Amino acid sequence: MKELDQLIEFKSSPEIREKLYEYGIPKTFTEGDVILNENAYIKAIPIVTKGSVRVMRTDEDGRELLLYYIKAGESCIMSFLGGIHQDTSKVKAIAEEETEILFIPIDMVSMLIKAYPEWLDYIFRLYHKRFEELLEVVNEVAFKKVDERLLNFIKKKCNLSNSATINLTHEQLANELGTARVVVSRLLKQMEDQGIVKLGRNKLTLLT
User: Fold this and answer.
1) Percent of the chain predicted with pLDDT > 70
2) 76 and 154, same structural domain?
3) Are 176 and 142 in contact (CB under 8 A)?
4) Model confidence, pTM
5) Which of 3, 68, 70, 129 is least enclosed by beta carbons within 10 angstroms?
């Protein structure tokens, strides 16, 4: 595991880093592992120290919509709010790749908020970042066509993996965009004809 103080997105004091190491519970997840399910009670706040996590919302028919990604040095503001208010999770979190997470117990989170102003600042800045990302999701769903959303999603995935090639099936792309597989397949073929992407078996490469 990488040093936590090199990853946390706030200028933390030695005391708070010691507390995180002392009370945090490290766990490792493989790609596709469900870290948190919807309607589950939140007993600890996750801080990603390696890898990345995708956060989804699922409807009654099982369709999923990608909300945002949590990268190394970040946490899930939805977990913060749900845990502090002893509420259940409203989202599902899945490991995007091999991921290491430090889980901070809820009672420790409350203590850190009271004792360390920089911890509260970290939470506020995370909240601001997630709020902007959720606004972007709402904007895309409400105002953008599916082809624009698909291309934006592909670019985001490539940026996250630092690679022009991503391994995803058409079904997975459709699920994460909240649309039908046949729609995604048709749009990807159009993008390939236009020289935007190159399609392979369960993978695609962004060319532009």
Assistant:
1) 93
2) no
3) no
4) 0.71
5) 3
- Identify the CA nearest to 136 among candidates 67, 72, 70, 76: 67
Q: 144-197 pLDDT, tens per residue? A: 788 888 998 899 888 888 889 988 889 888 887 878 889 999 999 999 999 999
Residues 39 and 105 placed together within one structural domain of the fold:
yes
Q: Measured between alpha carbons, how far apart are the two ends of the chain, in Å?
A: 35
For residues 81 and 51, the answer to whether their CB atoms sit within 8 Å is no
Tokens, residue 194: 């236009």
pLDDT band at 6 (very low <50, low <70, confident <90, very high): very low
**For the chain, what is the domain count?**
2
Mean pLDDT of the chain: 84
Sheet strands side by side (includes 44-50): 25-29, 99-105, 44-50
Q: Which two tokens stand for residue 113?
A: 């908020």
